[in-house]
Design goal:
Blueprint lengths: L2 H145 L3 H20 L10 H10 L5 H22 L1
């Protein structure tokens, strides 16, 4: 065997070994990397699914009941607000009706008070006229008795005139309206025995003054 051929054969064998080693190393390096990704990918998917499942579970267990409670609370608040608004409107309507009734009652009361005042004034005037008419009647009786020269009856009638005048004074009639009556009655009483004609004249004056008083009161 030729030594040169052997050397060449060894050299070629060495070259083949060197050329084949990088491929083996590359293959050995690429295979493990691909295996890690393949092994990690299911765990990543599991983690994502777990996260999504947890998120959904949290939503259904926590957030959805809270959202329902919030919606129910909002609906209750809205219903309460509506009821409160309706009650407020009803109360305002009742208040308006009460105010209207109060206004009507006040008007009726004012009318009643005015009517009472008018009736009271009319009654007082009627009572006053009643006393004046009695006064006038007693004056006529005194005049008639004096015309008949009935001194006793005339004296009695003159005493009635004094009582009538006292009643007029109690009735609250203006004192100026009664001025002169008392003096005339006293003069008529004083002149009854001595000067009956003067008493008759005094009675005529009293009668005329009573007519004037009655006309002023009407």
């Amino acid at each position: 065997m030729d030594p040169d051929n052997n050397l060449q054969a060894e050299d070629r064998s060495t070259e083949n070994t060197v050329e084949n080693n990088p491929a083996v190393e590359i293959a050995s390096n690429s295979v493990p990397q691909k295996g890690i990704i393949d092994r990690a990918l299911p765990w990543v998917i599991v983690a994502i699914v777990t996260f999504l499942a947890g998120a959904l579970l949290t939503w259904f267990v926590v957030y959805q009941p809270k959202a329902q409670e919030l919606a129910a609370a909002q609906e209750k608040i809205s219903s309460s607000a509506t009821m409160a608004s309706e009650k407020a409107a009803s109360m305002q309507s009742s208040l308006d009706e009460a105010n209207a009734e109060l206004t009507t009652a006040n008007e009726n009361l004012a009318n009643a008070q005015a009517t009472i005042q008018a009736k009271t004034t009319l009654l007082a005037k009627t009572e006053l006229l009643k006393v004046i008419y009695k006064f006038q009647s007693d004056v006529n009786v005194a005049r008639a008795s004096l015309s008949k020269l009935d001194t006793a009856s005339s004296r009695q009638a003159l005493s009635f005139l004094a009582a009538d005048l006292a009643e007029l004074e109690k009735a609250g009639l203006d004192p100026d309206s009664l001025s002169g009556f008392k003096t005339k009655i006293e003069d008529a009483q004083a002149n009854l025995e001595t000067a009956p004609d003067q008493t008759l004249a005094d009675l005529e004056t009293i009668y005329s003054n009573l007519l004037l008083l009655i006309n002023n009161l009407k």
